[in-house]
């Protein structure tokens, strides 16, 4: 009889692979859904190369190329990009046990609201924000640079009372703590997503347009000013949408980024490998929300238009 929760990883890229491996090595029953990297992971396992955790290797891996082959899971951590959410929802629903808890580990705004409409009523939905430097170097191999913190909070589902919500949050916090993953519990997922967007929006898009990592963007006065201007615009939009940002928040992000190893964000990795970029959730959605609240984001609109042009040409070449 199963006594420990069964955890499913939907989207075993850098995010899903890293956190899934950490949970599995802590003794949890973790199942990984993969697509293009299935053969490599099934044969050789998952590798994490990290100055923080050392060289980690999980083998064998409970790996699947088809959700129909997976057992029903009590927890589902979704590491796939938000670009795939419409087609992802049936996969999540198929992998979910009755009363399953789904955590979206994604960038952008309103991901939970759009996903909620596509999931069964019995599923609990949570938002998770990952503060971590990760990228894949080859199939099954993930390089971890720094951090690993997950902020998370309850979004919606059958837990309608505070006691039920706190029980679910507590269970997730305890699992992550056991796996050595630092966490913070969010009272408001939407506010936290706006806060993360202040880093994600500028650095992701600018890294593609400028073909540069964080060190170069912060060292050059012009690109640093560009990042600062984007941060200020997003801060204003967040406040208009009812999520005021604490004073000095953007400055603290810049200072923390300057101390990180040189980093090429996830959107740069998508562009480099000719994958669709998360343009809607990172840019189009906040622009629309800000406009509805009476705020404009002209600099972000220019960035979005450039990224759409770059993406169209890049995917055509692919």
From TrEMBL:
InterPro entries: 6-PGluconate_DH-like_C_sf, 6PGD_dom2, ApbA, KPA_reductase, KPR-Related, KPR_N, NAD(P)-bd_dom_sf. Residues 188-311 form the Ketopantoate reductase C-terminal domain. Its EC number is 1.1.1.169. It catalyses: (R)-pantoate + NADP(+) = 2-dehydropantoate + NADPH + H(+). The keyword Ion transport does not apply. This is 2-dehydropantoate 2-reductase. Gene3D superfamilies: N-(1-d-carboxylethyl)-l-norvaline Dehydrogenase, domain 2 (1.10.1040.10), NAD(P)-binding Rossmann-like Domain (3.40.50.720). GO terms for molecular function: 2-dehydropantoate 2-reductase activity. It comes from Halopseudomonas salegens. Residues 7-156 form the Ketopantoate reductase N-terminal domain.
């Amino acid at each position: 009889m199963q006594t420990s929760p069964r955890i499913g990883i939907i989207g075993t890229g850098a995010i899903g692979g890293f956190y899934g491996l950490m949970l599995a090595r802590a003794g949890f029953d973790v199942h990984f859904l993969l697509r293009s990297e299935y053969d490599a992971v099934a044969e050789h396992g998952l590798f994490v190369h990290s100055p923080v955790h050392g060289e980690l290797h999980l083998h064998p891996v409970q790996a699947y190329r088809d959700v129909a082959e997976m057992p029903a899971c009590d927890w589902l951590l979704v590491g796939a990009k938000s670009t795939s959410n419409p087609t992802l929802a049936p996969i999540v629903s198929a992998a979910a046990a009755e009363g399953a808890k789904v955590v979206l580990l994604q960038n952008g705004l309103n991901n939970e609201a759009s996903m909620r409409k596509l999931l069964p009523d019995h599923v609990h939905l949570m938002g998770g924000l990952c503060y971590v430097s990760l990228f894949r170097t080859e199939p099954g191999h993930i390089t971890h640079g720094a951090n690993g913190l997950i902020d998370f909070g309850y979004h919606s589902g059958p837990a309608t009372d505070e006691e039920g919500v706190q029980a679910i949050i507590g269970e997730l916090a305890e699992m992550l703590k056991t796996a050595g993953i630092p966490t913070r519990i969010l009272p408001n997922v939407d506010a936290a997503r706006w806060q993360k967007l202040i880093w994600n929006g500028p650095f992701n898009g600018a890294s593609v347009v400028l073909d540069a990592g964080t060190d170069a963007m912060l060292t050059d006065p012009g690109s640093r000013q560009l990042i600062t201007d984007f941060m200020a615009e997003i801060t204003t939009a967040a406040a208009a949408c009812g999520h005021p940002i604490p004073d000095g928040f953007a400055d603290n992000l810049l200072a923390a980024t300057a101390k990180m190893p040189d980093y090429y964000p996830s959107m740069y990795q998508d562009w480099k490998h000719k994958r669709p970029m998360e343009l809607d959730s990172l840019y189009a959605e906040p622009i629309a929300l800000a406009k509805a609240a009476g705020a404009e984001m002209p600099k972000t609109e220019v960035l979005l238009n450039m990224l759409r042009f770059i993406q169209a040409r890049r995917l055509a070449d692919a």
